[in-house]
Write a structure and sequence with these properties.
The chain has 114 residues and is an alpha+beta fold. The chain has helices at residues 4-10, 66-75, and strands spanning 17-23, 33-39, 59-62, 79-80, 85-89, 93-101, 107-113.
Length: 114
């Protein structure tokens, strides 16, 4: 997608983006989505955020296998922020969690319950 409307909305002259919407499970055909976009001619590196920054610090995803998805992120060009850790949460079970950065530097929390 591109055009004057996208230039106005993003404040970027000549903005071009492509992507998709991923429907969130459990909300039916008209439920919320997460929009995933890639912009042509990205501005380049920026200062990396930290897990405890103000504002949006990270997105969290429950996955089947924290270690395997972490390896997939690294293979795709991302990096690990920490290392996988496991703890017991009373009344809930075993939690396995790790923080990683995607190839653009965004922090992602991966977690699974056992």
């Amino acid at each position: 997608m591109s055009g004057a409307w996208l230039d106005r909305a993003t404040g970027i002259d000549g903005a071009e983006a492509s992507g998709l919407h991923v429907r969130l499970p459990g909300h039916g055909a008209d439920g919320p989505t997460i929009e995933i976009l890639s912009y042509a001619g990205a501005s380049g590196p920026h200062q990396a955020s930290a897990v405890n920054d103000l504002g949006l610090g990270h997105l969290a995803f429950e996955v089947h296998d924290v270690d395997a998805v972490g390896r997939d992120i690294v293979r795709a060009g991302g990096t690990m922020v920490g290392e996988p850790a496991t703890t017991e949460i009373v009344g809930r079970g075993t939690l396995r969690v790790v923080f990683a950065r995607d190839p653009e530097g965004n922090i992602i929390e991966l977690l699974s319950w056992g």
